[in-house]
Amino acid sequence: MSVTIEQTRTVCAALKGSCRRCEMSTQNHSIGQTQEAHDDLQWLRHALTEDWLFSLFHPIVDANMGRVFGHEALIRACQPQTGEVYGAGMIIDAANQLELHHILDQQARKTALRQAAMHPGMRGRLFINFMPNTIYDPEICLRTTMEAAQENAVPLPRLVFEVVETEQIPSLKKLKRILEYYRTHGVGTAVDDMGAGYSSLQYLTALQPDFVKIDRDLVVRAELEKEARQKMDLIVSQAKSLGIAVIAEGIETPGQLHLCREAGTDFLQGYLFGLPANPPAASMDELGIFPGTV
User: What's the chain's Rg over C-alpha atoms?
Assistant: First the structure.
């Protein structure tokens, strides 16, 4: 049984005091219901100890040349007996509930590096998500990643660490220190979901990552709403003034492709260029959506 995108989005996880399945405060659940929900998440312990994790790779495309610039590694888990696949949302929510997010963050990185190394034809930057709340010591975290990168012959300058769950960052100062530490060791940095409710241009200016990703919902709204388009243009302008490359996410239609190229984004990511896959897409040549550029 496969898990749909909608199932992933609505998994019942008591996160920050709310249950995502029923949209009610977890304090309204009985003790029995809470224990039952907790027991339902024990699959994650098996996933972490029995090597259920795997990565899918989603292409990031040069907005002007139409060439694959890199890939984002997306974590998944597969139950070997049933074939049931767990999406990233379910995995992260379960890890938060069971307080296994530190272990998940580390294993997800190792999995991405190991599986990327299995595809020597996959060149370019490798974007790996990390949850800043799991990092108590960036030196230790980077050391384990460096060891995995060396073991799999993946050079550090090829890596880009991408911040996820930005709305839950307890300290901007802490995150800035983490990103600066990574950059001094040759690893690129990226901030996800720019344009979402908790993101701001001040946030971008303070962190000054190498890449910023424009939130998918903003891209969709920018096609329809003048205000959203102005916000998108402002993000692109601010990023370029800081020397930050812009990646537009969630590109699913030729219209969105045209919009983002017109806005001046540097790179594009979305289902228009293919679904996340393993083995990954290595070329856009056969798509024919960049006329005159490939």
Answer: 19
